[in-house]
């Protein structure tokens, strides 16, 4: 059953919803990347909560004008307008008062949301039963979605994606170096607004599917996930879109199978699953990779210190070092070096002496800068340079009596 | 309005609203000054999964396990934010957003999947609270305030909010100096031997305590609004911390009372016959107060910035 949903064979509407959600997920992931790189991820939280009063007012207006209060385009328009006002409030509070951005975000989201709840209770008392669909905006529900609604979502997702594709160059520039972007003729203020507008578009379109409390997660989690896999912005945008799309696809399919399960939480949790996988397994930045790197580093340090101790005939008390040397066949369990170990130890000591000369000599300044106590000198200097240093050290000398 | 009507129907909800607002606004002062305002947001979201898990484990809707569950969830979220921030080298805002949305999603899903239809536990209740329903049925008028029999029938939420408020005040007065020092100059605080990290966590836990007690009675919207709006408005009124705390308490009380009155009687004045959500209205009023403060308060500009 789940499989049929995943492969889009569960009826026309379910398919449309799944495709719409996936497009939305991709758009959210891509947009969120720029939001994250600009370090303004939580502004989306204010945007999403600020949609609620707009939804309520739009519903009331539409009912007053004699239409159907639940027409999705009207509700989404209202949501867009009120969250735009919320966004302006956040930037006004940060710019013209001493409040920091986080306080402004928190104030706007809680007040707008509270006002939205007031409007919802007003609606509950005025329209008999017709307001039932509005609670769906809190947590999202795709159950009973109309064909036209799905079309709006799919179309909106696609349009947002298109806008991101067009604006990606200036937005990347802005995310990394606003001054440079300004000198290249990018209007920084307007571009910032454009990023926010895109985030707002994703939020508004996603209201029906994910719900306003959790839509933030679609903007935040995929970029964070993508950041683990790459150091390049264009790749990050792609991976983030992919993660967002994947999570939305799985989530929408699951909730198509089990209509009682709200779509939003499932999408968020699948997204979080991808994040945890990345956190643990990503090459280079993942926890596992960092741990392995640490272990490898630790081994090299112990090995080097052990060899130096062997060369100078000092006893080794560190159990881990002895174990390492023994495993490499360089020493016996009691810390006495094997022949192999003696040779390696002599080499280590000689390298240490070579480094000492290199670091004392101005001519080798650039090579000396690479010294960290672990680097093999052969990787830094040529054979000729090493033999020149060796001549300075000289060979073993007899002790004159 | 006469005492016979006011005391049983409006006194306790209003009192609970006021106490909850003050309990949240007090630690909120420090959260706002430490630029951790959104921790309040995060806490109020993760209270839901905490309560749900506590319910699933114990099977009853009782105060003690739920408080524990919610406090546990707050602790889990703080640890999780910190872990994600450090392990993944991710900026704090994103780590916070990631954590609380995930935990909230898990809470919603657990709630939908478990059989909670028999008990009063749902997402809407968690968001709006049920301030209006905390009535004192045993009261007959002002005289009931002196009647031990009637006092025994007070809603239990009132007791919990009072305890939380005492806890908050106790913590703040006990650790006032270290808190102030570490809020304004963290490295100096470390230099004089204050465990700033532990103090920070303790502050968050106290905020969580206030959030849980308030959440129980009034829902999570008020919690976020009261953590942030009164302290933020108070910040614009003065440059002295003591005065700021006092202002924030005034604003919190004002929002709670006015919000409750507008929600209960405002629609009647306008000719409608149904009350609106008190929790939402209290948040709205606190926002209006903040808006007024942002436009007219004496210290609204950054110090050094020209008065425009």
Automatic annotation (TrEMBL), chain A:
It is a multi-pass membrane protein. Keywords: Cell membrane, Membrane, Transmembrane, Transmembrane helix, Transport. CDD domains: TM_ABC_iron-siderophores_like. Its main location: membrane. InterPro entries: ABC_BtuC-like, ABC_TroCD. It is found in: Cell membrane. SUPFAM superfamilies: ABC transporter involved in vitamin B12 uptake, BtuC. The chain crosses the membrane at residues 12-37, 46-65, 71-93, 105-126, 146-167, 237-260, 266-292. Belongs to the ABC-3 integral membrane protein family. This is Manganese/zinc/iron transport system permease protein. It comes from Shimia sagamensis.
From TrEMBL, chain B:
Belongs to the ABC-3 integral membrane protein family. It comes from the Bacteria. It is a multi-pass membrane protein. The lineage of its organism: Bacteria, Pseudomonadati, Pseudomonadota, Alphaproteobacteria, Rhodobacterales. This is Manganese/zinc/iron transport system permease protein. Pfam families: ABC-3 (PF00950). It comes from Shimia sagamensis. Gene3D superfamilies: ABC transporter involved in vitamin B12 uptake, BtuC (1.10.3470.10). PANTHER family: ABC-TRANSPORTER METAL-BINDING PROTEIN (PTHR30477), METAL TRANSPORT SYSTEM MEMBRANE PROTEIN CT_070-RELATED (PTHR30477:SF8). It is found in: Cell membrane. Keywords: Cell membrane, Membrane, Transmembrane, Transmembrane helix, Transport. The chain crosses the membrane at residues 6-26, 38-57, 93-111, 161-180, 200-233, 245-263, 275-297.
